[in-house]
Amino acid sequence: MLNITFACITAFLITFMAIPSIIRVSVIKSLFDEPTERKAHKSSIPTLGGLAIFAGVAFAYTFWSAGLNTGSTQYIVAAIIVMFFIGIKR
Fold this sequence. Notes:
The protein is mostly helical. The protein is built from 3 helices and 2 strands, in the order αββαα. It has one domain. It has a two-stranded antiparallel ribbon.
């Protein structure tokens, strides 16, 4: 239980520290999602936020997973990786 708590805290801190630099890269490279009538946001939003979330979760899982003995986590990790690459391609 303690490993899960530390993994969540680690993922949050990595994501929290990575978001400003990713926003800066998005501004430099002009990687924005422009608002249209079908979208909820009213201004341009950087599109690379998922990269920071993926990095935080991936690092926290690999660092703290030694104490987790569940067999189904490999399928969850595989699904997260597939969703990440689909999101990057899109």
